[in-house]
Amino acid sequence: MKTKELIINTIRIIGDVIFVNLAFLLAFKLRFIGGIPAQNYNDYLNIIPYTSIFSVLLFQMYNLYSNQLKRRLDEVFYTFIPATFIIVLFTGAVTYLTHSLAFPRSVYLMSFPALFVIMVSWRYLTIALERLISKKEEIIVVGRGENTAKLIKNIVHSMHKSYNIKDVIIDDPDYLKDLDFVDFNLSTDLNNLEEKLMEIEADIIFVASNLNEAEKKDAFYAALEKDWEVSLVPEFYEIMLFGSRLEQIGEMPVFEIVPPHNSIGFFFKRLTDIFLASIGLILSLPLTLPAAIAVKLESRGPLFFTQERVSRRGEKFEVYKFRTMVNNAEKNTGPVLAQKNDSRVTKIGKFLRKTRIDEIPQLLNVLKGDMSLVGPRPERPHFVGQFEKEIPHYKYRHFIKTGITGLAQVYGFYDTDAEDKLRMDLLYANKRSFVFDLKILLETLKVIFMGHKAN
């Protein structure tokens, strides 16, 4: 981590601890206008260490201490909706377990808006200051084919104005004909790539896919020599290396790659799925009961929509959802992928999809063992066959059990293409762990509030 980032994140952590606790104290002040009773005040002081440590760990899980300049402000805003709720819930649990009488119910109610407003304001302030003192970072993009153009579009659309694409080296300029809105130096000669890169000044180099091994080596050696950061779009086999572990055969270091379905972690993942799915079904009743009534009242047809999907090792199962489309929506069209603003979706269905309430019945699939809470989204057999013909390595996403939510759902968008979703699915398969699953579940809570991602 750069020294500047370390200093800024240290300031963020200290500020987070201070402002989280100030928010609770503000709620106390609003509740006890004449002054906080000594018993309440002392009880709250006793739980400050627990709340502070938990808040920092939660913010770390939400990536609030990394790559802040690359994050959209609305994403930060939506992150704090579930984060503040979880902190208030945790604080209440601590007071209960420690037999503390610190929090009247009114303080809980007032602490949520106070915590949300204060933390969002503090985070926006730190991001604004970081952008103010940060210089514009120069970027080089190197690659072959249309994936390079797609990478540039993603950089332009996702990064803040403090980033600037300075040079692009690509095999054919025709791939960039739709990028007239981006100004950069263009080279179409990938020969002697390392020498060319050594003559360029930049801060970050993006290495797109489809480069051959020699070209990638040239890019990495130049980056090492020039002290650049490197961002690589991985090939599918490189993603498999991501989950490898270092072993030693005699005096030779080797990477050992364990197939995802041979991991002992599947047993513990199954126990976690059963426990959390059971709790989820009970806690979601205030949402699912009104949703069920609304579905039945709006249109004729069954309450649940069932559809055949493909899971681990190609096994097929019936997935459960609340029905969000008109009955027999594909009667005249056959299998069709859902589209943005799909006319077949009912009014209640739009709300259920946006809030992800339509997905809750899949907790029954989790209990049955058809799915996991976290994993690649299960696709229909018709489209699995289609994608396997069009996209190399698509079948490898079925190494592990599919899930209600996954890496592609929290970091991608509804219309993210199948190839990029596959990259994220394979990354998850190789990085899966209890902590990573928990991180994805927390991110899912955030995505529910982000309409442009939850469509």
Automatic annotation (TrEMBL):
Kindly report the protein's main subcellular placement as a broad class: membrane
Q: Which residues form a coiled coil?
A: 190-217
Q: Which residue range or ranges hold the Bacterial sugar transferase domain?
A: 269-449
Q: Which Gene Ontology MF annotations are present?
A: phosphotransferase activity, for other substituted phosphate groups
* Localization: Membrane
A Pfam family matched in the record: Bac_transf
What GO cellular component is one of the record's annotations? membrane
Question: Which keywords has UniProt assigned to this entry?
Answer: Coiled coil, Membrane, Transferase, Transmembrane, Transmembrane helix
The family database entries (InterPro entries) matched by this protein are listed as: Bact_transf, EPS_sugar_tfrase
TM stretches of this protein: 7-27, 47-65, 77-99, 105-125, 274-295
Regarding protein family, the annotation reads: Belongs to the bacterial sugar transferase family.
Output this protein's name.
Answer: Exopolysaccharide biosynthesis polyprenyl glycosylphosphotransferase
The opening ranks of the lineage are: Bacteria, Bacillati, Bacillota, Clostridia, Halanaerobiales
